[in-house]
Each structure stands twice: as structure tokens, then as C-alpha cells.
Amino acid sequence: MASVEEKKAAFDAESAKEVVKELRASFASGKTKSYEWRSTQLNAMLKMMEENEPQIVAALRDDLSKPELESSIQEIAMVKNSCTVALKKMKHWMMPEKAKTSLITFPSSAEIVSEPLGVVLVISAWNYPFMLSLDPVVGAIAAGNAVVLKPSEIAPATSLLLASLVADYLDRSCVKVVEGSVPETSALLEQKWDKILYTGNARTARIVMAAASKHLTPVVLELGGKCPVIVDSDINLQVATRRIIAGKWGCNNGQACVSPDYIITTKSYAQKLVDSFICELERFYGENPLESKDLSRIVNSNHFARLSKLLDEDNVSIKIVHGGERDEAKLRIAPTILLDVPQHSLIMTEEIFGPLLPIILVQKVEDSFDVINSSGTKPLAAYLFTNNKKLKQKFVATVSAGGLVVNDTTVHLTEHTLPFGGVGNSGMGAYHGKFSFDTFSHKKAVLYRGFTCDVSVRYPPYTRGKLRLLQALISGSFLGIIRSLLGWFRS
Amino acid sequence: MGSKSEDKAVFDTESAKQMVNKLRASFMAGKTKTYEWRVSQLIAMLNMLEENELQIVSALRDDLSKPELESSIYEIAMLKNSCKLALKEMKHWMKPEKAKTSLTTFPSSAEIVSEPLGVVFVISAWNYPFLLSLDPMVGAIAAGNAIVLKPSELAPASSSLLAKLVAGYLDGSCIKVVEGAVPETSALLEQKWDKIFYTGNGRVARIVMAAAAKHLTPIVLELGGKSPVIVDSGIDLKVATRRIIAGKWGCNNGQACVSPDYIITAKDYAVKLVDSFKCELQQFYGKNPLESKDLSRIVNSNHFDRLSKLLEEDKVSSKIAHGGARDETNLKIAPTILLDVPINSLIMKEEIFGPLLPIILVDNVEESFDMINSSGPKPLAAYLFTNNNKLKEKFVAEVSAGGLVVNDTTVHLAEHNLPFGGVGESGMGSYHGKFSFDAFSHKKAVLYKGFSGDSSLRYPPYTRGKLRLLQALLSGSILRIIRALLGW
Question: Do B158 and B245 lie in a common domain?
Fold first, then answer.
């Protein structure tokens, strides 16, 4: 662990270059490629979490006032699960995948070999600072890479803890944490990486991809968007409401990339829905939600001001049907529901990322799809609550988002057999489960041949007979092959 | 097909914007998403290839002096194959893929749905102008997208023919060809695409990726590099030599992204190897290869000059072991072999992309791997000729390239079950076969739940009991679950 003076030394482009150089040497030595190394690192990570759960929970409380249950389940347990899945499946993932070959290269055999990319950079976010840092690192390690992790400076306690824990538990010559903000991140982005995985917002993502383009570094960008929830009538309203609340306020108080951003429901159902929310919100957070220990606070005053601005806009503030209370000193905003806000309001233009939930009204629920698609940008997730099979089918066929859930919110993240990633403005690439392993691997095609059966038809001098035979061979038509052979022997 | 006055109109940013808007409208109307549309387009492409083979061969002869067999097999037949494969497998590719769900979301079901990305942009290259334009397009169509194709202006006859044929055979409201050079490509790159597929060189690739970054557009970059060939002793030298020749001079005269670029062999095997090359090269191309009809020419005088410069460098020109003859008027360079050139010569630094084949010597063949890995950028392909199993294993384990072939060159491109793409400087992403379909699709995760089995554990108010039970559930440990339940 670095002394205070060492920490104060600026981490500039030169330092970044040294770090990459060191990691590249470690990678070139073959250290990270062995199954044993990967397995020890993942086991060390498990141990790290098991032995430091209270510290992690405390750091998340410092940074976000995140409730213990959320920290324990949504952050720590998720990463533990990723480690466990990787440890269990890694041998299988690492095995080359046989590929069938055709007549064209007969006799031959082929396989697709997963190869580590090399030295990768993971840039994390502030809202799930622990999970979004280590989950990608699990994939990078499982795939055999050396890693630099840059946690978000907006969650400083977690960043510091991560730096300390990773240095203590993981292999420092191959896995490093660099703390800092824009200068340090820029210094890192100037280097040549074999992959960059960035979690955050679209504005910074453009900068990351532009930096990556200088070195032709492939990127995964995990961004966000306005995740809509379509609520049909004739459903179990209590369960639906609870699940929306859990995905919104129960996920870092709405500050999550897959949190329900806004609701679309029919004019005729709106009141029932609002009443249900009011009822369940009180059941969950009590009569005085500003005091509830089960809600994260707003991360900082910048975001508090941003969210306040959304609420204070003309023609929006009057639409508040529940909540709206604020406590600036404690950075608290109560769960707030707005009904029928204008389409062009700020709260309907930008990603909310907070405890405000607008409800948009339509005549019939099928109109929701147009509302979502006309917004122009594709969100990271979209949700639909319905019992209507046809509506589910239309939803899946029509709504483009990173991922969809029918009759729940956010839980698809826990299924490691589903790729987690965005599309369009919500991102590119995906991870979780084997997708994490794949995203940090190069899928190398390998074809094996022997020296027998050398088909001379491909060699010059080119003749009409050879041409015909090759055409037949490639088309795979046996008749054509036989005809050409006959023709060839004749000539 | 535009009239003469329309053709002369400048294709600027505004034109590009209009075109993208039109294609987006077609896409939003759902036209390209149907199975029927995709099938009709692929069948139309097959017809297009079948009915115009002569014109295509002729255009390739104009642009590259490409021999008919190479045009017919490596461009047209490969393309037909891609179309047929997509037609055969597309229904299966389009089907959602079921995904297993776990206890954490029980009861639930899940699937991964392949969705077209939308409006995609394909930028092609000059060396295989038909294959590299239409092969990505097959994938884009099979995946249900609208497309703009920008063929290379360095192969103008092919570009013009492509524009004409695509307009004549394919659905003009969803698939367009834009001819032109840097200005037109730049105008197109300013637009927001749902994917860009670029084949070409690293310098332009950086420009493409930077442009894509502005719109967060995902990309596939199919680039190149110096594809090495390691030649061991104890092999069938004749077959090996022929296969190297076929991959080098038999592929557009070395102007192919996966052509063998240089050879590494042991000092005491070099002479045998060179002799074998001399023998087989003569068998293939005769005593006067500058006159052979079975060799493409150098594409233009720029590249001719570039290659001449590589040959004329000090300490390199003296290493010519075979060939070296040039005909500037006809843009021909004879198959040329150089033996033991300096490692830091120009011919060993940049991708050759022509009919020059340097041979680098090592003491023993195992040293080749370090040489390749320390040479810098990862190539698009690497080749090894050997009968030694251990050497094969080491090769596959240690050499990083887009793809590897043992005991042949370039043929892995023909196998549609193998992803074709680069790594590092040789590119990102891949295609061919189902990989083409996947490259132009969004893999959308979908989770289905019902309203039954709603566990209140996840809901506030958060209690210690709920926390313990949730931890137990996630750990999957039955014992822990029971303990937690009892405790609660």
C-alpha cells in the first residue's frame, strides 16, 4: 500500500505508460494465461469479498448512503456469483471450440481458440462502484488478461477501498488499480490497450471511443438511457407496483442504468396505478421517506441540483402527484411521482437517474410502442407489465433496447446466461457470464491440414477445366464435380 | 440509375443525410425485417451474380488484370456460397435462442432475440472489390438491415458495375451504392449509422473509428498486416511451396490481406526452399512471368512505385534470389523472392501487399514464434508448414493473429464455420457464415416472468432476516437457505 507521499505524485502520461509497460511484460511472460493463475485470482477475489464485507458496506454507505441489503445483495453477492460461475465454467470456456470444415478444404479440421487480448482497461462508474469495477475484472481475469481498473472518483471511499483490497489480495504485477479523475483517466486513455470496457455516460463514452480509435482498440461501452415501463391494465397491480418500486427506488434510489425511468400507461388506468404506488411506497418507506434508511441518498450536490431542476421546470412541478420533498443538506429527495408531464419537458428528455418517476398517458396501451420508438434513442432496458400474450409479442418485436423484461424490472442482470449490454446510444458489446469471458478474448480461427490430397486444380496454369472443377467443388454439387472431372479427364 | 446530370451532382453531407433518412424510413416501416424480404434480396443477388458473371470478370480484368479463374472462384463463387448458406440457414439464425434461467428469477424463462441494427454502412476495398463489397452485404441483408455500400474508387470499373447491378437487382429503397472517393466517404461518415463495416488499411480505419465514435456507432474493421509463413523441414516441400505460391501470387498477385507476406525458415533449409520456389514458380507462370495471364497486375502506379521502392532499398536489392523483373508500363512485377533481408528494412516493416516474398532466416525454427510476436502488430493471418505436432501446438498457443492455418495458406477464408477477422492492428470484429449475421444483429436479452411466486424478500423495509435469506438464496446453498429460514 502506497505511502501518502507516493500517492501525491501525479499520475501522468509517463506513469500510465510505465504501468502498461509493466503489465505488458507480465502478460508476455505468460503469467496470466495459465488456468492456475486465473483460478487463484478469482479465488482470491472471493476471499477478498468474504473477509471484507463490512468494510465494503461501510464504503458504500459513505459514498452513497447505500442500504446494507443493497450493498450486500446487488453489489457483493453479484460479484461473488460472477466469480463462482467463472470458476465453475472457466475450464469449459477455455477449451477450443471445434468447427466443422467443408469439402473445400478436405481433408482438414478446424477449431476456434479463445485467446486473451492482453492488457485491458476497465473504467467503472460511481453508482455501483464495487460491482461495476470488479464484475468486468472477473471476465478479464477469466479470459487471461492483465487489467488496470480505474474506479470512479465520485465514489471515493469505495475507490480507496478497492485500491487497497486489490493490492492486498490480487497479483499486483498483473492487476492494478489507478485512482483519480479526469487527468488520470486521460493519461490512461492515451495508452495502447488491447480492450477498454467503459461503464458510464454517452458523453464520456464518445471521448473513450475516440481515444481508442487512435490505437484501434476495441471497446465495450455500457451506457444508459431512459428505460420505459409500459403498464397494461388487468394485471396483478400490487406485484407490478412492488417490482417497479424495487427496480426504481430499491436500486440505489433510481440511480442505476437499468432503473425504470418513466412509465407509460392508459389514461383510464392512471389513477389506479398512482394509488397503488402511493400505497406500496408507504408500505416500503414509511410515512416519512426522507428519513428512511432503506433509500440511498443522491450521490452529490451536482446531481441534487440537476434533479431539482427537473422538478422545478414550468408545467412539470404542478404534475407532482406524490412526494416532491427535498432535503438539500442531507442530499435527500423523496420518492416522487409525476402524472402526465409534457413530452418535451427536461424530465422527459434526459435520463433521470434519480428518485423521480414521471407517468406518461396514452389512449390505449398499444400506443406505448410508438412513444418509445419515437424518442429516437434506444434505452438500455425496457419493461412491460401485462398478461396479454399478443402485447408481449409486439413488445419484443417492436421495442429495441439492450434488454427487455416482461412483468418485472432489472432482474435480467442476475441471469448470467443473458448478455448484458446496450444498443445504439445505450452502448455496444455485452458481458456477464460467458459473455464476459468472450468479450475479453480473441476468437482465433485455426485450420489444420495435412499434405495429402493436394488438389492441383487451384494452381496455375489456369485452364477452363480447372475453373469448371473448382466451381463445382465450391458449389458443393457432386453432380457438377463428377461432370467436371469427366470433362477434365477428356481434355 | 441516375441520369448524366444527376451523376454529376455532388454527393455531399446533405445528400448523405437525405439518403440515410430515406433508408431509416424504409427500415422503420419494417420492410427489411421480414424473412420474405431478406430471402428475395439474397435470391436477387444470386441471380445478379449468375447473370452477370462475364461482366464481373471483365470489370475485374479492367481494374486489376485479375485472371478469370481468380475472379470466378475467389470473388463470384465465394459470394454465391455466402448467399446460398444464408438462404439455407437464415430461418435458424433468426430464431431466438433460449437461455436457461436460475433460482434468482424463478419462475421465469428467457431468450436472446436477434434484431437488425438498422441502417448500416459498408466500405469496401479495391483488391477484391466484388467479394469485399457484397459479402458483408449478404450478412447485413440476412440480419434484416438497410444498407449503403461504398465501393473503392481504386477499382472504378467494379465500382461502376456494382452500382449498376445493385440498382438493377436489389431493393433500391433499402440498399444503395454510393460511388466516389474521399469527399463522398467523408460525407457518409458524418452520418449516424447503426453499424459501420470497413475493409482496408489501419490509417483509414482510425478515421472511420473516430467518426463512428461521434455517434457511438459500433464497427467492424477488417484490416491487414504482415502475415508470416513459418516453414519447417521434414515436410512435403513441393506441396508446401505450391500452397504458398497459391496464397501469394495466386491471390491477386500478393495484393490480398491474408497473402503470405514473408517467410521464416531455418538457415540450413533456405536453399532447398528457394530452389523449390524457383521450380514451382516456373511450372505455374512459365519462364517469362511478366507475360503470364495468370497473374494480376499491380493495381496502379502508386502501388507500383511503393513496391519498387521496397525492392530498391540498400541492402535489399542485393538479396533478390529470384525474379525482380519489372514492367512499369504494364504495371507488372515478376514473382520475386529475397533471401535474408535486414530485419529493419522497409520491406520487413510495412505490409508488402504485392508479389515480393522475403525469406528471413533463423537458426532453428522454434525461434520463429518470438520473432513474430516481437515484430509488433498482430497480423490478420499466420501460417506454419510442419509435420511436428509439438511445433503445431506451440504455434497455436503462442502466435496471435486473426486466424491461423497449419500446412496451407488463405483457405480458412472459405470455411464459413470459422470467424474471419483480425486482432489488434489487423482489426476488430469478424464475419463469414453466421458470424456475418451476428455482426449485423443486436442480441437482445429478453426475460419473461409471471405474477406468481413474488418473493417479498427483495422489498423494503430491509431486515436482517431478509438479508440473510437473500444471501443464502444467491449462494445456492440449500443448507444456508434452511438455516436462514429457521433463523427467520
Answer: no
Partner B contacted by A54 (CB < 8 A): no
By Cβ distance, the residue of A445, A451, A461 closest to B403 is A445
Distance from CA of B198 to the nearest CA of A (A): 13
Rg (CA), chain B: 27
CATH class, range A13-224+432-443: alpha beta
Q: Is the same domain home to B122 and B193?
A: yes
Where residue A29 falls (left for φ over 0; alpha for ψ -120 to 50; beta otherwise) is alpha
Tell me the per-residue pLDDT of A437-464, one tens digit each, with 9 for 90 and over.
999 999 999 999 999 988 888 999 999 9
Per-residue pLDDT band for A238 (boundaries 50, 70, 90) equals: very high
Give the CATH number of the domain where residue B59 resides.
3.40.605.10
d(CA A123, CA B72): 48
Does one domain contain both B138 and B262? no
Inter-chain Cβ pairs, chain A and chain B, closer than 8 A: 306
- To test the contact with chain A by mutation, choose from B458, B463, B464, B481 the residue with the greatest count of A C-beta atoms within 10 A, namely B458
Do B368 and B232 lie in one domain? The reply is yes
**Test mutation, B61, B73, B201, B282, chain A, max A CBs within 10 A:** B73
More confident residue, B10 or A191: A191
Across the interface, whether the CB atoms of A396 and B101 are under 8 A apart is answered no
* pLDDT of B48: 98
Other beta carbons within 10 Å of A47: 12
The answer to whether residues B139 and B202 belong to one domain is yes
Contact: A69, B459; criterion CB under 8 Å = no
Residues B399 and B477 in one domain: no
CB contact under 8 A, A408 and B214: no
Strands (E) across A289-355 are located at 320-322, 326-327, 332-333, 336-339
Q: What is the mean pLDDT of chain A?
A: 95
Q: Is the pLDDT of residue A8 over 80?
A: no
What does the pLDDT look like over B230-252, one tens digit per residue? 999 999 999 999 999 999 999 99
A7 touches chain B (CB under 8 A): no
Domain ranges of chain A: 13-224+432-443, 228-420
What is the fold, at CATH topology level, of the domain defined by A228-420? Aldehyde Dehydrogenase; Chain A, domain 2 (3.40.309)
- Considering the domain architecture, whether residues B214 and B253 belong to the same structural domain is answered as no
Is residue B337 within 8 A of residue B320, CB to CB? The reply is: yes
Q: Is residue B419 part of a domain?
A: yes
User: What one-character-per-residue DSSP string does A265-299 give?
Assistant: EETTTHHHHHHHHHHHHHHHH-S-GGG-TTS---S
**Under a CB-based contact definition with an 8 Å cutoff, are residues B382 and B394 in contact?**
no
Closest by CA to A435, choosing from A135, A224, A30, is A135
Of the candidates A358, A52, A58, A79, the one whose C-alpha atom is nearest the C-alpha of residue A227 is A358
Q: Does residue B6 sit within a domain?
A: no
**Tens of pLDDT, residues A319-330:** 999 999 999 999
Is B3 part of a structural domain of the chain?
Answer: no
Taking the CA of residue A118 and the nearest CA in chain B, the distance in Å comes to: 10
Whole-angstrom distance, CA of residue A354 vs CA of residue B383: 55
Note whether B77 and B154 are same-domain residues: yes
Confidence (pLDDT) at B2: 47
DSSP state of A30: T
Question: Domain containing B216: what range?
Answer: 13-223+432-443
The number of distinct structural domains making up chain B is 3
Catalytic-residue membership of B222: yes
Q: Which residues of A touch B218 (CB under 8 A)?
A: 428-429
Positions of chain B with pLDDT under 50:
1-6
pTM above 0.95, yes or no: yes
**B460 and A294 in contact by Cβ < 8 A?**
yes
- pLDDT at residue A491, as a whole number: 46
For residue A58, give how far its alpha carbon lies from the nearest alpha carbon of chain B (Å).
16
Q: What is the ipTM of this complex?
A: 0.96
Encode pLDDT of A339-374 as tens digits. 999 999 999 999 999 999 999 999 999 999 999 988
> A488 falls in which pLDDT band (50, 70, 90)?
low
- pLDDT-derived band at A3 (thresholds 50, 70, 90) equals low
